[in-house]
Amino acid sequence: MSPSANEDAVGATAVSADDVRELLRGVVDPELGADIVELGMAKDVVVDGDHVDVTIALTTAGCPLRAQIQRDARARVESLPGVERVTFTWTELTGEEKAATMARARA
Fold first, then answer.
1. Is 10 within the bounds of a domain?
2. What is the span of the domain harbouring residue 51?
């Protein structure tokens, strides 16, 4: 029997971008009170072996809560078996995205 697409040669399950996104649902933007996936702030997840890069768009470039969001996201992603390194790419929501994010937070 051959390994599935999410298993490597030794049978360990590889981490998928969907696995990471699911864990990021537990990361709450403290200012908006909702998770960063629901708010549309978790823009991209790239998994390359044991390295995961997460792109997060903040409401403002100088968001004072960035460090807290990063700590929470890092702790969750590093809890996945096989993840050795987590990096972040930071962007800012466009005006239109920010309006949609605020509407989601109020819903």
1. no
2. 17-101
pLDDT in tens, 24-83: 999 999 999 999 999 999 999 999 999 999 999 999 988 889 999 999 999 999 999 999
Q: How many angstroms separate the CA atoms of 50 and 65, rounded?
A: 27
**How large is the angle between the packed helices 17-24 and 66-78, nearest 10 degrees?**
130
Global pTM reads 0.84
What distance in Å separates the CA atoms of residue 39 and residue 21, rounded to the nearest whole number? 12
